[in-house]
Amino acid sequence: MSRRIIGPFNRVEGDLEVQLEIRDDRVADAWVVSPLYRGYEQILQGKDPYDALVYVPRICGICSVAQSAASARALADLMGLTPPPNGERAINLILAGENVADHLTHFYLLFMPDFAREVYRRQSWYGWAERRFKALKGSAVREVLGPRAEFMHLQGLLAGKWPHTLAIQPGGSTRAVAADERTRLLGLLFAFRDFLQRILFGDDLERIVALDSAEALEQWRHAASPEDGDLRRFLHIAEALELQSLGRASDRFMSYGAYATHQGPLFAEGVWQDGRVEALDTARIREDVSHSWMQMQSEPRHPFEGVTLPASDLDEGYTWCKAPRLDGQVVEVGALARQLVDGHPLIRDLVRQSGGNVRNRVIARLLEIARVTLAMEQWARDLKPGEAFHHGVPMPDEAQGFGLVEAARGSLGHWLKVKRGRILNYQIIAPTTWNFSPRDGQEQPGALELALRNAPVQAGEQEPVAVQHIVRSFDPCMVCTVH
Predict the structure, then answer these.
(1) Do residues 477 and 103 lie in contact, with contact meaning Cβ atoms separated by under 8 Å?
(2) How high is the pLDDT of residue 1?
(3) Selection from 154, 77, 30, 126 nearest residue 468 by Cα
(4) What pTM did the predictor assign?
(5) Which residues, given as ranges, of the chain have pLDDT below 70?
(6) Residue 243 CB coordination number (10 Å)
(7) pLDDT, tens digit, for every residue of 407-425?
(8) How far apart are CA 368 and CA 383, in angstroms?
(9) Would you give the DSSP letter of residue 120?
(10) Which of 265, 323, 328, 358 is the right S-S partner for 437, CB 3.0 to 4.6 Å?
């Protein structure tokens, strides 16, 4: 048996270390370490409630809109405010634009370059994988960065700027869209669709979304060359490396529901376990700090009662990340959870066959790109220039509220209390806090800690490539984790 520390990891957002216990060329156990403390929850105490909309986007530069949207929704909740339909559509477009861009960045720049590493040189597919996905040098980088940059122009149209926009407010969006701007927005989306269909999927978005089973996915894959679209390339590699057998966690999934509209969310909320969806009760969320570098508490607390008091000298702690649990249980969040809870038949079939794993997380993320891009086209068409995008009411002197959204990486929640016109308490649980949490008071490992167990370690590997595939399949954002 041996102990090994892997990290700091490259190609992840923020600081991450993983401690591994290795036995018989397998990971026997793992401890996930978030080594950077930032303290935004403490910074917000005593501030004007509206100041949160300035501070929280700066938790992270790549998912700042998600933080803005969660904060605005929490403020709207305590104000009893619902944005007008135009405001909802605009916010959905801004958030969806960020999430889709994050998925695209993760696939091409963070995840796929691992398959161009020397460890895979003997694989039959290595030659084209290296030419296509090698970090900074592969042909995919040149083909993807330009369309992604063009796609991000919609943030300027809808939000004024990105990151750290102030357009998202409790009452909607302050950036009204004129008729000519809507036309330009649709043009950006159609150009992005064309890129996705030519380069990523090698097929129409509608056909990708219509895939309804693992068998249908296999038939689609074999209907063309393995190099006809990057989804097919990934599926070819995934089969060769048996990625469906790598990185299984608790198989309990949670989604807050995504992209609210007056007709209901685009993706449903709920909890998936034991082969079915159950209702989500956020009152049953608790944060445990028994293995965190936080001042010890007698019991786990709901975020409304949460306390963030750093204490780096605690012997029981090994990370700055808290351990959120739903009804005392570990859950996984992210695109796989969203599509599973929402009921997409392809994802449900894949999970029934092999659970949550590296392959299924990536497939769900790419499927979501297609589904959300189609929804964005409809939201853009539905914008009504000349009608209200925002309205407001006075901020109460004393109240509490919470805001739940789905960031690219999963469920993001903000909880705050206001007293005498100032923030009394502000607590945030980010997606990677759920997925990369430490053990709790019952010694339950977090989702990644579970997923790393039994990962193979090849002879001579100091940084096992299988471990890196698993870690990156969750697309961690560590700066959000420790906020």
Answers:
(1) no
(2) 67
(3) 30
(4) 0.97
(5) 1
(6) 24
(7) 999 999 999 999 999 999 9
(8) 22
(9) G
(10) 323
